[in-house]
Amino acid sequence: MNLEFTEEEKAFRAEVREFIENNYPQDIGTRGVDDEMGREDLLAWHKILGKKGWSVPAWPKEYGGTDWTPTQRYIWGEENARKNTVMPLPFGVSMVGPVIYTFGNEEQKAQHLPGIRSGDVWWCQGYSEPGAGSDLASLKTTAVRDGDDYILNGQKTWTTLAQHADWGFFLCRTDPDAPKPQMGISFILVDMKTPGIEVRPIKLIDGGHEVNEVWLTDVRVPATNLIGEENKGWTYAKFLLAHERSGIAGVARSKRGVEQLKEIAAAEMLDGKPLLEDMGFAQKISQLEIDLSALEITELRTLAGEQAGKGPGPESSLLKVKGTEIQQRLTELTLEAVGYYGAPDFRSFPDDGSNDFPIGPDYAHHAAPTYFNMRKTSIYGGSNEIQRNIITKMILGL
Amino acid sequence: MDFDFTDEQNMVRDGISRLIREQYDFDTRRGVIASEAGWRPELWAQLAELGMLAAPFSEEDGGFGGATEAMIIMEEFGKGLAVEPFIPSVVCAGGVLKHGGNSAQREEYIGGIISGEMVFAFAYAEPRGRYDLANLETTAKADGGDYVLNGHKAVVIGAPWATHFVVTARTSGGQTDKDGVSIFIVDKAAQGVSTRDYATVDGRRASEVYFENVAVGPEAVIGEVDNGLPLIELVSDEAIAALCAEACGAMKVAHEMTVEYSRQRKQFGTPIGKFQVLQHRMVDMFMEYEQSVSMTYMATLKLGDDEVTRKKAASAAKVRIGQGGRFVGQQSIQIHGGMGMTDELAVGHYFKRLTMIDSEFGNVDHHLKRYTDLSAADVPVAAE
Ligand SMILES: Cc1cc2nc3c(=O)[nH]c(=O)nc-3n(C[C@H](O)[C@H](O)[C@H](O)COP(=O)(O)OP(=O)(O)OC[C@H]3O[C@@H](n4cnc5c(N)ncnc54)[C@H](O)[C@@H]3O)c2cc1C
Questions:
Q1: Where do the DSSP E strands lie in A95-161?
Q2: Which of A286, A346, B165, B205 could form a disulfide with B38 if both were Cys (CB 3.0 to 4.6 A apart)?
Q3: Total structural domains in chain A?
Q4: Which residues of chain B neighbour A376 with C-beta distances below 8 Å?
Q5: What digits encode the pLDDT tens for the residues B83-126?
Q6: Is residue A217 assigned to a domain?
Q7: A43: burial class by Cβ within 10 Å (0-12, 13-18, 19+)?
């Protein structure tokens, strides 16, 4: 048992820190709410990492991975969080990429992996439907074989940032008569420019445009875009979900968030003292830090298991539940810290460029929308109720 | 012991609830908050005509009721998420005037509030004052019999719609002294008053309000010079009771919507309301709501008690409602799943309003501390 990093790991940390310091573009929008950042801002760091060969660290080396140990990947995440970098989005790098190199054929790998690595191609995830959320296997979008093509019909929803997407990976029903719904689903790659695809924005409670409906009407897709075998899509989707969950704890980002919260609490005054010195509030921050340490060590234990060759198991559900609870708590406390100035809706501020009468401190502007927005984390990626069901079944055996 | 409402009070509830139901459905509200004005002056006129703006005043002042009527009205406001400034204008400014105004001020201003011709905003919060009502950087300097106001008031709810402000300012003493605080009425059109208007995240409008050498006469002072704080505290407790009632209304609707959604929404071949974990969660929401109603009644009924009792009751209610509102709001979203996150569904707007109510007139932490301080001042001595 040892919590210390080795000399090599420390050297690695120094190396990546220096690289980030020297290469992270200073002009990337840092306003913090996704939809205010354009496609180029969201991809800028990804492209730089692509050139360096660090955009897909977790992939096998033959596909462009870095061969870092899980601990090195962890350090990488920490150093990025320190700088608050805009990391490559998960849809290509952590979701469809691993599916393609694991289950795809050589043509598919050659066609798609380079664009994911370089950040030139934007992917979106077409799983959920209006009637199929937690019960994803009940999805209804169909793909019907017609000569060398599939013809897709149906509606996907909650598709994150599909407004920027070049490609999407879709789960479609190919066998409506399969004995179990899971057995009739296929995993299909779709060029988002194909005729018959319509992307409609959904506005969320924070006012942002982050998700979309994707309507598919007679969308003709070459059958060569099928991943693996027809009707085996559920297996690939489940494989992917395990990948999605392992990153979702967000420990490094939350640590950075606690630092930011402390900065805000140091600036806010209560009874003539910084809020940070108020025993009640300081204890709430301490509680959050303690919970975060518990999560961090739990994640490190999981990583150590991975390093020893164990794949991510149902324990990743624990990381998802606790990680998102902490992320939500963090935004709750931030909103509390800013007091009255949580109320102004920054989207409504007159855009006259004048800063003579600022409306509250800058750090307050995003407190409420971020708090509202982060309610999503206990809903998506398998809701926290569903994660608890998984632990009930897989770990408790009930 | 009696928790029944009088016939008159039931009529107030019926009237206001019909008005909100018939004229304030969710789509109408959406249109209102997106409009240039951001509120419905014509509805305000209608409320005046129905006598609703007179509800919390005594007969002497042209009204017919008190705090219970305000509670009833705000509960219905909460159900419809009405944005109109009943609390700032009627409860706060009206409260300052009815408790502290002289007969000329009452006649002029309470009359104006009741008729709807005057709309007030309550300019008490400051950028660095947090929830301390006495922490004032805004000053009013005596100049002969007149006063000159300078300062900046923060997030003044309803200010864009106001014709007048009730302003708290320091007339003497240090920045946080309890003495030396006074209350003024300032016409929004007065020379030296400027505002910067914006929308709030829960669909209302507010302003930063700036006073630059604003001169007012002695008739603008409400109550005693230098001794305004007790009156400000009383009125803010009345506002808390009304705000708690609004939260109860919003909680009730959010909870009902969630239960209804859980009946309709099917996953895994069954309504999600059949999952026991969600059932118990909705039961917890229900219990939070009921406890909040109880605390709102208590705070309302104790507004006329001695100072310590009143303050403790208001703080206790605000703590309970802050916590209950957060729980009910968050779980309403959670149980709606992705749909709860959308701007399109009403439930998210209830969640947002419930969230922001916590930061008005002091949040949970502030009132927990206030309650504790008041209790500490009143410790029984243990027998040897
Ligand atoms: C911001 C955001 C981004 C998203 N991005 C994407 C994306 O890019 N691509 C994509 O495909 N999807 C995406 N999703 C969809 C997400 O995966 C679904 O919202 C999620 O699976 C929940 O489904 P639902 O919204 O239909 O809720 P429902 O499944 O209807 O769930 C409603 C409530 O019931 C509970 N519940 C359901 N079943 C059970 C059970 N068996 N036991 C106990 N409780 C249960 C849930 O936990 C939840 O509280 C996104 C969602 C959001 C909010």
A1: 123-126, 142-146, 149-160
A2: B205
A3: 3
A4: 338, 341
A5: 999 999 999 999 999 999 999 999 999 999 999 999 999 999 99
A6: yes
A7: buried
